Amino acid sequence: MAGLKIHGLAKSYRDVRVLENIDLDIASGEFFTLLGPSGCGKTTLLRTIAGFQHQDRGEIIVNGERIDHKPAHKRDIGMVFQDYAVFPHLTVAENVAFGLKARSLPKAEIESRVAESLAMVRLDGYQNRLPAEMSGGQQQRIGLARAMAIRPTLLLMDEPLSNLDAKLRIELREDIRDIQRRLGITTIYVTHDQEEALAVSDRICVMNKGNVEQIGTPFEIYRKPQRRFAAAFVGTMNFLPGRMQGGQLTVGSHSVPFPHGVGTGSVEVAIRPENVLLTGASADGEAIALRGEVRKVTFLGREAHYTLSTEAGEIVAQVADPDRDFIEMEGRPVEVRLPLQKVVLFQSNGDVLSAGRP
Ligand SMILES: Nc1ncnc2c1ncn2[C@@H]1O[C@H](COP(=O)(O)OP(=O)(O)OP(=O)(O)O)[C@@H](O)[C@H]1O
After folding, report:
1. 18 CB within 6 A, ligand 1
2. Dihedral sign of CA atoms 61, 62, 64, 69 in order
3. Is the entire prediction scored with pTM above 0.90?
4. Domain of 347: which CATH number?
5. Which of 83, 298, 299, 335 would give a disulfide with 279, using CB separation of 3.0 to 4.6 Å?
6. Domain of 295, in residue numbers
7. 39 Cα to the center of ligand 1, angstroms
8. Whose C-alpha lies nearest to ligand 1, atom 22?
9. E strand or H helix that includes residue 190
10. Which residues of 184-197 are buried (b: 16+ CB within 10 A; e: fewer)?
């Protein structure tokens, strides 16, 4: 199995820079996700790795060998596309056999690989169907079986679940993850869906405007964002203005000692909704305390979301399993606390100053 290294990759379309200067080091067997908003360059990066288009500069190295001068069909890469890209006039088995025939494998080998690949994606018994007789989820399974049948060195997936409904998306992403783990195939997965990225990835690369904002495990990306962009893009994050001075952090009218973030100046105080504490909740360690009022309560069954206006600005709190009194709080004053352990501070340039006080 192979790892992938990318050095100084850049790509422009006419005079528009789409990839600025990308460096990646992906381990053998890793499930690596490119996550970012529409237009940030994810697909361009994936297609450049696949060889469907050429970079302006930079290197793509698989297993120590440069592959960026090779044509796409010589790169030993399996690719799964958003729109399935199955051949409508070929049966399921013929679709899966396509890449194997192109490689002139013996007939018996093709048959056994087709059977093995279809079993892997749980489509055994569907060999003779046409894609039009299959659901969207099943068509994407054909796409996955076809990509895996050639036993590629790398598997690239471009938003493979975007055309499926929510339930199928979850089902198929679990299957993709299981197959990837079982086979240990190095996988690069493109999505703009942050929950999907958190659920399937070993590591996530958050991209923005052709640049890498942060690379980390799902936990690191969610809990220890290194850039404001990653904090705001992944999950919900509250931001309040604050000020550091003389080892004190001031938010609204409240100041707390914050020795970790030495320096002076404006900061942004970021906290996840599930970490905001309301009246009565007990906190470990010190917290920023703010006066607030409940503007809106949205009850979602297992949790409720509170829109709060505080003296420092509007934020959202999420409370798990709220009791009845707690749901009927609209218009009431509330004490809001932000535990320092859970607070992330950003500088005005978007770099992190402190992610959770040690
Ligand atoms: N062939 C092309 N010619 C000119 N511009 C292009 C071409 N392909 C992509 N672009 C532009 O390059 C930028 C990056 O596109 P890309 O498809 O890589 O982004 P993306 O992050 O995958 O977005 P999405 O999630 O919408 O697919 C976009 O601004 C897009 O309009």
Report:
1. yes
2. negative
3. yes
4. 2.40.50.140
5. 335
6. 237-355
7. 5
8. 43
9. strand 186-191
10. ebbbbbbbbebebb
